[in-house]
Specification:
Elements lengths: L1 H26 L1 E6 L4 E6 L4 E6 L9 H31 L9
């Protein structure tokens, strides 16, 4: 019975650390720049697009499709980087243990 109480305490501590980490990740961002810096996307640790910057030189009515492709590429790459950042932080938190349901 004593082991179950210890396990429950550890689970509560882990849950508190996870909640704190999720708050911290909201403030951490990653950036991806494509097309030689023509489009830059910034994503936070919650996988939310925070900002997108477009070099005015790329804004050309005749090349809208290229601009759309650059935006998609920048956002997708930033999302991948954000997911990797979250995974690295979770690994630090869990000591490398794979816990089902956590990211």
């Amino acid at each position: 019975m004593h082991n179950i109480k210890d396990l429950m305490r550890q689970a509560q501590k882990m849950q508190a650390r996870l909640a704190k980490l999720q708050e911290e990740l909201a403030d951490k961002t990653v950036e991806s720049s494509v097309g030689g810096g023509m489009v830059t996307a910034v994503v936070n640790g919650r996988q939310e697009l925070v900002s997108i910057k477009i070099d005015p030189e790329v804004v050309n009515a005749e090349e809208v499709e290229m601009l759309e492709d650059l935006i998609v590429a920048a956002v997708n790459d930033a999302l991948r980087k954000s997911q990797q950042m979250v995974q690295e932080e979770m690994t630090k938190l869990t000591g490398g243990m794979k816990i089902p349901g956590l990211f």
